[in-house]
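Weekly structure sync, notes
Attendees: PL (lead), two postdocs, one rotation student
Agenda item 3: pending single-chain targets
PL asked that the sequence for the first pending target be pasted directly into the notes so everyone works from the same version. It is reproduced below exactly as submitted, 246 residues in total.
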Amino acid sequence: MRDYAKISPQFWIGKSGKALRGDQEAQIVALYLMTSPHSEMTGVFHCPILYIAHETGLSMEWASKGLASLIEAGFCTFEAANDTVFVHEMAKYQIGEELKPNDNRVIGVQKIYANMPESLIRRGFYEKYRDVFYLKKDTKKASPSEAPSKPRAGTGTGEETNNGRFADFWLAYPNKKNKANAEKAFLKTKADDSLLATMLQAIEVQKGSAAWVKDGGQFIPHAATWLNGKRWEDEDGSGGAKPWEV
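Predicted structure, written out during the meeting:
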C-alpha cells in the first residue's frame, strides 16, 4: 500500500472535474480510485467494484453507476473480465509528466508494465506512456490458456484459421461462460480478418459502456448471445443484454 498519493486541484476544474459536477457518486469513486489502498502509481490496478462499494460506503448499484460515469467522462477504463481499472492520468501525477531516459523510475515503470496481465488496458497504458516513460516495446506472451491457437498446415479448409480467429475473439471477450456455444456461434458468422477486427473494436468500446460495467458486469451477455445478435453492429455501442439474455 502506498504511503501517500498526489491529487491535483486541477481535478475540480479540469475536463473530467467539470464533467462530473453534480454527480456525487462519480466524484467519490474518482477520489477513491486516486487514493485507493489497492492502487499503483501507474494507475493500473486490480479493483473489483465490491472493493469500491465496501471502502467508500456506497451500495454496489451506486458504486457501479459512479464508475460508469467516470468511464463516460474519459477518466478511466475498466475491464470487468479481470476487475482491472486504468485511471488514465494517474501516472502523470504520481510519477511525472515526462521522465529523462536515465531516470531510475524508468526501470521501475518498465517492471510494473512488464508484470501487467495481457489486456486492452495494458496495451492502452503502453500507447499512452511509451514515449514519456521510454517503455520498451511489448514482448509479453500470452499464457498457454490465453494464447490464440496457431493454424496448422495440411487440410487447406481454413478451419484452423477460423479456430485461430475465435481464440482471438475469446481472449478479448469478457464473459467467459459457455465457450463451446460461443465457438459454434462464432463459426456461423464466417468471420474473416476484417470482421474479426470490427468485433474486437466493438468489444473494446462496449467494455467501457454503462451496461457492461453495471452491477459488476452481470449484464454482459454470453458470447453466443452477442454473436448471434450481431451486437458488434449496435449503433449506441452499449452491447448490453436484457436480463433474459445473460
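Discussion points:
- Residues 159-233 form one domain.
- The radius of gyration is 19 Å.
Action: rotation student to compare against the earlier draft before next sync.
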